[in-house]
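Fold this sequence, please.
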Amino acid sequence: MFYKRVKIRTTQGFTLIETVVVIGIYTVIMFAVTESILQFYKYNAYAIAQAGQVDTARRGMTILVQDLREMTFADDGTFPLKSMLPHAVGFYSDVDRDNSVEYVEYQLASSTLKKRIYGAVGNPPVYGTIPESTQILSEYVQNQTLATSTFFYFNKNGVLASSTTNITDIVYIQAQIIVNIDIVRDPGQFMLRSSAALRNLKENI
């Protein structure tokens, strides 16, 4: 009687040593990837934070310009522009589109640009001294640190206003803010500049 030999192939898994080696290699790779990500954020944290603040400032500047362009006479007939200072501007504008004109104040206090809104009550209307709302539009604004004005005012001839300029002569306002979360570090400050003609003044109609 003859017997035929049959070879049976068996598949073996990883041995313990091979498993340990694979785990070790995987751990080294994951550590390297994680460290690379951490180093990226460590060395780019300033640039990322700066970009975020610039984007916030850009949105704030858009709101400011929109409000300036809608400047109009107050409910009590007061001239649209009430206050013009290097780092603050106060004016009347229907910012909430409710057919009632609010008093709006933009002020750079230290390094924070804020917007305050004051409503009118009564008949004849009287504007309050406590803001109905306060909004932070931008932080890390370095204008005061750099001795640079935030607001510039011009008459109808394009002449920059001086301390003797009558407020009723202003027809054009330019705003600029310099943003930098750390003034001694690169990539340096970022300047945003925009302007608005006061189109609702009687002379411009």
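The chain has a mean pLDDT of 84. Helices lie at 16-69.
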